[in-house]
Protein: FAD-binding oxidoreductase
Organism: Streptomyces sanglieri
Amino acid sequence: MAHVTGSASHREGAVAERGGGSPASSAVYPGDPRYEDLALRRRNERFVQRPACFRVVRSTDEVVAAVQWAVDSGRPVSVRSGGHSLENSVGEHPDGVIIDMTGMNAIHFDPDRRAVVLESGATLGEVYRTLYLTWGVTVPGGWCHSVCVGGHIQGGGYGSLSRTHGSVVDHLYAVEVVVVDEAGRARAVLATRESGDPHHDLWWAHTGGGGGNFGVVTRYWLRSPGAEGDDPADLLPRPPASLTGASSCGRGRICRRSRSGG
Ligand SMILES: Cc1cc2nc3c(=O)[nH]c(=O)nc-3n(C[C@H](O)[C@H](O)[C@H](O)COP(=O)(O)OP(=O)(O)OC[C@H]3O[C@@H](n4cnc5c(N)ncnc54)[C@H](O)[C@@H]3O)c2cc1C
């Protein structure tokens, strides 16, 4: 994400307002056995992600606290979900903070917004299985099951169903993003595709431009445009009855694969 640092005056104001600002128990520093595991969680081993600290978050409130803490400490902050960026887009900042989203991986239906909610740390494999086995629906995302939706959706997200159903962002109803305002205060903002939404531009900013630019995405809400009713089975595309593709067993066979990803 855009690297955010905080001035001294921002620090004082933010700490006073929040009544604290100390790091939560999710902070992992060098020397902690978890640090080496977290440092290895990236697809392209050419790049080294050894920040001053990882923050392993489990809720939107924890993300707000982690971002606020980074701002208050004057540290560069970046975010990682699945670690599948092949470029160095998460970044190498020895004095920085990497917010690790993999503890936020829930998938559920939000009846108020008539949309399926995906937390950023959910993998595509978890998403396909849950959408199909729970409601019989899917999204036209990519093939790699360990990619996380955190980076995937805001990059557009395309796959074998895209000729029929577009990209995943064509079904993006809303996004929750932790941003930092000009006073250095972190907060969560919900941005929807509703034309009257004052945060509509922030929603648009997450429909294909790629991750790490505007804030930390905590959750995505998915509902196809024009979908009617409040039954999740009617709100996203239905997968085809079967899919013919290269076998994932690596033996070069062509096989029919189950729609739940098996
Ligand atoms: C093996 C492989 C197969 C792939 N196949 C496909 C495919 O079929 N279709 C397709 O569309 N793409 C595909 N991709 C690309 C993949 O969708 C992108 O690399 C995606 O950005 C990975 O997301 P991630 O969260 O796993 O990666 P990360 O490396 O964690 O993040 C990628 C970028 O997004 C940012 N980011 C991550 N999470 C957040 C967040 N919560 N908030 C804000 N910024 C965030 C990071 O800072 C970074 O800049 C593939 C990649 C790989 C390695």
